[in-house]
């Protein structure tokens, strides 16, 4: 499957695009909030211990509320949970703005920050469980997670700079008010998305493959427990992989300042450069992640573990700024790739009805690993030196990542999403049936399922040709608008028929309109995948163009 085609499907999915855009706005707002919060706490208290209290206080809710948040994500509408948390956090931003105006005590500000963290603790499992319901195909989960991670790292790169600029222009009160607005924007985006209640009665091994019971609501507790036991074997591997990245990432974040001052003999300026390189590495790795995990998940884990270990060791041993910037960028990219893989594995391997609780478990393990990494890294560096500490963390992280493969492989969680046999069968019965089996299998993986409701227009005459369609079931009517305004009925198409090739092969607008007469299901190939498939067979383009020529009732659009 083409990575570019997969990314295009992500961005052409209006629901998923809106969610990702909203989360990018929210991430930039989070940086604005965090920078403003630390400034106001220090300005009010002039006590570094207060900053530590804020940092610790913002982590504790994620530990305490992770399991309840996961259960809530499985029992209630996930979209409603996200909207509620955004509303609560937006209101708390207004409270913080008021506290800054009246110079409220530090403890009051810290208390509000902890309440905001409590709301955030419910957001993570909800969105992690909700996102898979927006993708059109399971194979798109990896690219969707890659885009999400890329935008998150882009926010990490630009967020602090934007925060500093806005705080400098408008002050701290303005920063909190603007963040409240960002939460309102995200809430509006979420309102435009479909409901996100967990599928009832899910016990499938594949993410999202739930057996509907014909009614809404929450599945019975006995069914939930059975489903939870069915995925218990996958949790240790997921926890191992997540803990490795969280531990190494948190330790590296704390040691960045030490690296700048001691290893590189520099100071604040280089510390900023190192943080910027971290963001750039994450952005670049986010683009690559979708391509690397389209087929295999075990090899990217091994590759990222090895590359990350070597890069972080190089970071510890170099004394020059430029190699250090490159090393920290590569390390951050490797960690992000492992994060994307872990999220994709969880979403594929955990049934929809249990996904929230699995996210809650990972939230606990991730928080504990981050605390351990941030606490132990400076202590170990002080005892054995920065270089040894970094080399040791790289070996530990790479080793745990490798161990996660041993834990996950027997469960089948690392297997690529299966290409449905019916997709390949449809291609074999189509004009592409003469192509080599490997080519058909590859094209089947690029096919996007499209569900059509009776009366729905699939393609419209005069519009740009962007997709080729193969009908799996249902009946579809073809009509053509004449110069005098009349609608000419060109006939009907059913299972096994194909359409949309003329516009793609001749680069002309659609020559007819195709609408569903009944509910049906189709598979679509994007322009790039279709043209790539056509080029694989000599004379295939001509055969497609001649396929229905001369038969008025089967003019193709």
What's the topology here?
Layout: H1 3-12, H2 14-45, H3 48-64, H4 66-75, H5 78-102, H6 106-130, H7 141-191, H8 221-230, H9 235-263, H10 268-292, H11 298-317, H12 321-349, H13 355-384, H14 386-408, H15 421-428, H16 437-446, E1 448-452, E2 457-459, E3 467-473, E4 476-481, E5 487-493, E6 498-499, H17 501-506, E7 513-516, E8 520-526, H18 527-534, H19 540-546
Antiparallel strand pairs: 1-8, 2-7, 3-6, 3-8, 4-5, 4-7
Q: Explain this structure to me?
A:
- With 557 residues, the protein is α+β, with helices and mostly antiparallel strands.
- The protein folds into 3 domains: 1-133 and 161-194, Growth Hormone, Chain: A (Up-down Bundle); 227-417, Growth Hormone, Chain: A, CATH 1.20.1250.20; 421-554, Jelly Rolls, CATH 2.60.120.
- It has helices at residues 3-12, 14-45, 48-64, 66-75, 78-102, 106-130, 141-191, 221-230, 235-263, 268-292, 298-317, 321-349, 355-384, 386-408, 421-428, 437-446, 501-506, 527-534, 540-546; strands at 448-452, 457-459, 467-473, 476-481, 487-493, 498-499, 513-516, 520-526.
- A hairpin with a 5-residue loop joins strand 4 (476-481) and strand 5.
